[in-house]
């Protein structure tokens, strides 16, 4: 026979324990750390116990207070190695004495034997299988008795065929470790899965107040589970070493039920409490997989373990009943019930379910009448398993109500684990924890599981307050937190008189060598302290802050100061005897009114007190702590006396009128705006800290105060932003007295307009700090958002005139290049958007003379564009497919020479050209060009250039007749890029004319040289003759006969000479070019 296979555990057998240990599957890696106020469990100086590495030290914990002289804790380590022969990781329980100076532990020798054997047919057979039995997975104490269990302990059974059953077993240490007995109630002849073979007795355990043991065995009867109970003394009596099956007198246990209850795990958790009203403690058993996996909790009668009442979970798979606890929360003398469901799921803000955990509180209202208290306590840490362990703490804060600890072993940052402390009160448990204890160790290979084991309700250091043990088996630690004594404090603050009259200056303050009279009042404060188990003398730190509400306002001036220090803050140390009341007195005074603006609001005085952190600890190493429910900040207020009647209340009547210099603002413009307002106070009292409050729209900016009118008041304004709202506040007076009427102006710009709003609104209001009627009505000033664009079309002809006959041109029958047509003309059109708004779709049409009665006038060659413009020409654009000239090589347009071209006069047919001079699209056939212009912002342009040739042949046939070629460009803005429609769509036209002007032909006459010489000689000869004649005439002066003839002769000679010069000049002029004479006759021709 081989016995090796007896050690094999089936998955179903170890399932309950596996879920207990490895309930961390699927943990999220991110958590949020709750922030709570630390209360009286001392987290600064805990006692930390450590066990062997990998032993799961801390898996179970409890206090052991056998007598008043010694205090210690007992800690289970279910994977620890022991001295038992041939037993691997059998598990152990450690005894850890408590003192301020040490935290050492040593093993309690419950069982020193290895695996036991029996002789069958002269053969030794192994009966026990203690390796990996998880001894110490459950540890409980009662008085001088300690119960420790190994739920995975297995034995051979009595069958002939070797078989191993995981029945579990427990040991009791009684009489302060003087006696050890084994208690294995599931080790019976009813073996295998159908009986108690997989019982795992001791998976959970507890003691009643009178010392009865209650065990949970969730694997019995196809994992229906069962609860077993027996008195300690009966267990001791029944124990006989060497006997594997023992009958304990008075033992009671639940029976097998219908198969529908298989796999329910009754006994997964157990607790004791009185619920039936018969003064006999009953039992509570968690059934986390019962009732279609909703889970349930059964209250069993303490006499016969019959089910009296069941409570069912609200969510499938939440493991309702994983943990149970009993205590009197509301101090009504009846035991209440708490149930944990650590896998309860909550739907998050994103709609997804997240595992948070929940604890249910049932308040007992009478025998078997438990009321579910709402709201439930729900975890906040995803996959933190809130509610895995629930531990009654006793009255932790000594307020008369018992408190409770709830664990969240995988919550917190780095899965360090959290323990929540909830205080009881008359209506149950408070919704918010009074303290949250955070584990010190981050998760390693497995989480630290801080809080997986909890035990409280025992005063270890005998200071009158219960303490708490927290296990963290993942790091092999257990932490003892002791409770600090709680100080209940009463404080008062008094100001008298409460009204400060600025006119009554009855105190003096010294500034250098000067004494200044000031207005002052009296201030006093008192403190008393009380509580349980407190030292005789308590040291407090007291802080008095004047005008405390101003402390929260940036840049605010404290209006009151202490008379002795001239400071707004007073700090003192106050020593109070336990049970006594201590008072202090001082004076405060009002600063000069010029030093502050706020004369209306109350001057608050705040008293803040706390225990001196530097005070010495008591004999147990603990410092008292203030009750967190005690108000440690007290406020009183004083008022400044105003000129507002007996009630000291001013009631203004504020009126506001607003005018602006424009009603419209344009998209794309800066839109300068001036708002002029009239502010009045028509009430019976002044308006204190009065200001004009202007809320600016997002599109606007503040520019400054209007200063162009001497009648306007020059205000002081501040421009600020609060919660993305920009506002302007302007001082109107402090106070703005009754009867005040002032005019002022404010300048703004509105540059950031959007087409999503058709209006822009400024909201203006007068505000003051008065309690009654403090504001005026809000006056809105609306501006209409308008779309408007100033669009112009400019055009020019290059050259501005075309002169005929053209130079270097000859009539041809076959047109091949563009020069064959005639003189070149370029028209340039520029569409300009002067804004302020944009235009996005504009139609531009150009029409120019093409022909009249078959005679071509202006031949279009090509066009080019600049900017966002796209054009399409009609079929007439270079319809002859002439070769275009891309680089200009033509000489300047000059008058023709005679030998280059001869104009022949010939008879022309009478046609329309005969009596037309202005050739436009209204009287001749035209060619056209269609353009679409894209987005034009303010200041941008689109340019169209059109090159053409004047059809010279047509105009040569009509010599010396002047014509004007007129092109017409029209534009129309079809669309603007705004949701707001424009009031008027821009449109217009531009005419560009090109005159055709004729010059007379040049005649080249060469004057012969001999004629020029002859003319000069004739002139000189005539001049000599005239000189000779004058000489003779002057010689005859002497004779009287000639005297009368001198004057007429001189005149005759002079006239004769002038006539000669004129004739000579005419002769030369006749030889010059007739075209030059023609040009001088044209008034519009520019020449020197």
TrEMBL record:
For this UniProt entry, the molecular function terms from Gene Ontology, in alphabetical order, are: fibronectin binding; integrin binding; metal ion binding; protein heterodimerization activity
The Integrin alpha first immunoglubulin-like domain covers which part of the protein? 483-643
Spans through the membrane:
1009-1031, 1051-1073
Which keywords appear in this protein's UniProt record, sorted alphabetically? Calcium, Cell adhesion, Disulfide bond, Glycoprotein, Integrin, Membrane, Metal-binding, Receptor, Repeat, Signal, Transmembrane, Transmembrane helix
Q: Please tell me the species this chain comes from.
A: Seriola lalandi dorsalis
PROSITE patterns named in the record: FG_GAP
Q: Family, per the entry?
A: Belongs to the integrin alpha chain family.
Q: Where is the Integrin alpha second immunoglobulin-like domain?
A: 644-785
Protein localization: Membrane
A cellular component annotation (GO) from this entry: integrin complex
Q: Where is the signal peptide?
A: 1-38
What's the protein name? Answer: Integrin, alpha 5 (fibronectin receptor, alpha polypeptide)
Q: Which superkingdom, per the lineage? A: Eukaryota
Xref: Gene3D superfamilies: Bicelle-embedded integrin alpha(iib) transmembrane segment, Integrin alpha, N-terminal, Integrin domains. Chain A, domain 2, ntegrin, alpha v. Chain A, domain 3, ntegrin, alpha v. Chain A, domain 4
Q: Which InterPro entries match?
A: FG-GAP, Int_alpha_beta-p, Integrin_alpha, Integrin_alpha_Ig-like_1, Integrin_alpha_Ig-like_2, Integrin_alpha_Ig-like_3, Integrin_alpha_N, Integrin_dom_sf
GO aspect biological process, one term: endoderm formation
């Amino acid at each position: 026979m081989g016995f090796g296979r007896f050690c094999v555990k089936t998955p179903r057998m170890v399932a309950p324990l596996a879920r207990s240990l490895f309930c961390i599957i699927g943990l999220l890696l991110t958590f949020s750390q709750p922030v709570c106020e630390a209360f009286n469990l001392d987290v600064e100086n805990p006692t930390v116990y450590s066990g062997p590495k990998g032993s799961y030290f801390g898996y179970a914990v409890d206090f052991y207070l056998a007598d008043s002289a010694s205090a210690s804790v007992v800690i289970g380590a279910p994977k620890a190695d022991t001295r038992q022969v041939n037993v691997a990781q059998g598990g152990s329980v450690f005894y850890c004495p408590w003192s301020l100076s040490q935290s050492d532990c040593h093993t309690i020798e419950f069982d020193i034997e290895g695996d036991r054997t029996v002789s069958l047919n002269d053969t030794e057979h192994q009966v026990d299988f203690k390796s990996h039995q998880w001894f110490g997975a459950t540890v409980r104490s009662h008085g001088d008795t300690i119960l420790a269990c190994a739920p995975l302990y297995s034995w051979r059974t009595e069958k002939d065929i070797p078989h191993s059953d995981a029945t579990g077993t427990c040991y009791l240490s009684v009489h302060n470790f003087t006696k050890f007995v084994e208690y294995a109630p599931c080790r019976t002849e009813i073996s295998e899965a159908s009986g108690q073979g997989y019982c795992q007795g001791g998976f959970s355990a507890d003691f009643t107040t009178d010392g009865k043991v209650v065990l949970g065995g969730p694997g019995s009867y196809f994992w229906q589970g069962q609860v077993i109970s027996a008195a300690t003394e009966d267990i001791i009596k029944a124990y006989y070493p060497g006997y594997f099956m023992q009958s304990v007198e008075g033992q009671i246990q639940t029976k097998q039920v219908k198969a529908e209850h298989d796999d329910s795990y009754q006994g997964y958790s157990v607790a004791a409490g009185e619920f039936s009203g018969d003064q006999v403690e009953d039992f509570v058993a968690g059934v986390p997989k019962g009732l279609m996996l909703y889970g349930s909790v059964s209250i069993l009668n303490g006499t016969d373990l019959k089910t009296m009442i069941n409570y069912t979970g609200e969510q499938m798979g939440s493991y309702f009943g994983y943990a149970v606890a009993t205590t009197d929360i509301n101090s009504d003398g009846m035991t209440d019930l708490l149930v944990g469901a650590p896998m309860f799921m909550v739907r998050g803000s994103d709609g997804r379910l997240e595992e948070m955990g929940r604890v249910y509180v049932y308040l007992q209202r009478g025998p078997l009448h438990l009321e579910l208290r709402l709201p439930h306590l729900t975890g906040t840490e995803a996959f933190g398993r809130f509610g895995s362990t629930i531990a009654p703490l006793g009255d932790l804060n000594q307020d008369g109500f018992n408190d409770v600890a709830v664990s969240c072993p995988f919550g917190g940052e780095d899965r360090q684990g959290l323990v929540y402390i909830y205080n009881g009160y008359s209506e149950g448990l408070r919704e918010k924890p009074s303290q949250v204890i955070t584990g010190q160790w981050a998760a390693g290979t497995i989480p630290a599981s801080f809080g997986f084991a909890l035990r409280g309700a025992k005063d270890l250091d005998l200071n009158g307050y219960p303490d708490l043990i927290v296990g963290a088996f993942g790091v092999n630690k257990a932490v003892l937190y002791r409770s600090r004594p709680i100080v209940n404090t009463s404080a008062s603050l008094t100001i008298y008189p409460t009204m400060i009259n600025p006119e009554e200056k009855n105190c003096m303050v010294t500034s250098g060598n000067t004494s200044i009279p000031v207005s002052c009042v009296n201030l006093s404060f008192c403190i008393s302290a009380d509580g349980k188990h407190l030292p005789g003398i308590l040291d407090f730190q007291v802080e008095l802050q004047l005008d405390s509400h101003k402390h929260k306002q940036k840049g605010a001036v404290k209006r009151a100061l202490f008379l002795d220090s001239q400071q707004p803050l007073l700090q003192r140390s106050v020593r109070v005897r336990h049970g006594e009341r201590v008072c202090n007195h001082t004076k405060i005074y009002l600063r000069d009114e010029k030093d502050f603006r706020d004369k209306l609001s109350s001057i608050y005085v705040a008293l803040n007190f706390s225990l001196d952190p530097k005070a010495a600890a008591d004999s147990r190493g603990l410092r008292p702590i203030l009750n967190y429910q005690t108000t440690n900040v007290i406020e009183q207020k004083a008022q400044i006396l105003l000129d507002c009647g007996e009630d000291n209340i001013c009631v203004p009547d504020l009126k506001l009128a607003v005018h602006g210099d424009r009603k419209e603002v344009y998209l794309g413009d800066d839109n300068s705006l001036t708002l002029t307002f009239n502010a009045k106070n028509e009430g019976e009292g002044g308006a204190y800290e009065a200001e004009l409050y202007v809320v600016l729209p997002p599109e606007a900016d503040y520019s400054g105060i209007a200063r162009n009118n001497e009648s306007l008041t020059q205000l002081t304004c501040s421009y600020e932003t609060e919660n993305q709202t920009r506002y302007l506040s302007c001082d109107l007076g402090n106070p703005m007295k009754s009867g005040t009427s002032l005019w002022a102006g404010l300048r703004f710009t509105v540059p950031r307009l959007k087409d999503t709003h058709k209006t822009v609104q400024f909201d203006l209001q007068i505000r003051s700090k008065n309690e009654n009627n403090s504001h005026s009505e809000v006056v809105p000033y609306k501006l209409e958002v308008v779309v408007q664009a100033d669009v112009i079309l400019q055009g020019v002809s290059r050259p501005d005139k075309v002169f005929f006959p053209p130079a270097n041109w000859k009539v041809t029958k076959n047109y091949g290049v563009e020069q064959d047509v005639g003189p070149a003309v370029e028209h340039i059109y520029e569409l300009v958007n002067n804004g302020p708004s944009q235009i996005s779709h504009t139609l531009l049409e150009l029409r120019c003379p093409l022909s009249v009665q078959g005679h071509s006038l202006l031949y279009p060659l090509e066009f080019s564009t600049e900017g966002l413009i796209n054009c399409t020409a009609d079929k007439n654009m270079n319809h002859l497919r002439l070769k275009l000239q891309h680089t200009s090589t033509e000489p300047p347009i000059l008058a023709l020479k005679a030998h280059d071209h001869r104009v022949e006069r010939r008879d022309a047919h009478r046609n329309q050209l005969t009596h037309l001079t202005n050739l436009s699209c209204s009287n001749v056939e035209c060619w056209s060009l269609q353009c679409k212009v894209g987005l034009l912002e303010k200041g941008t342009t689109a340019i169209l250039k059109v090159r053409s040739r004047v059809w010279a042949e047509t105009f040569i046939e009509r010599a010396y007749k002047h014509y004007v070629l007129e092109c017409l460009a029209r534009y129309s803005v079809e669309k603007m890029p705004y949701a707001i429609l424009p009031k008027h769509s821009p449109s217009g036209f531009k005419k560009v004319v090109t005159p055709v002007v004729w010059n007379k032909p040049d005649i080249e006459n060469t004057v012969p040289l001999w004629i020029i010489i002859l003319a000069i000689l004739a002139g000189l000869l005539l001049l000599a003759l005239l000189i000779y004649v004058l000489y003779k005439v002057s010689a005859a002066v002497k004779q009287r006969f000639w005297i009368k003839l001198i004057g007429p002769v001189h005149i005759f000679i002079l006239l004769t000479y002038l006539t000669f010069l004129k004739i000579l000049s005419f002769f030369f002029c006749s030889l010059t070019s007739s075209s030059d004479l023609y040009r001088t006759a044209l008034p519009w021709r520019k020449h020197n």
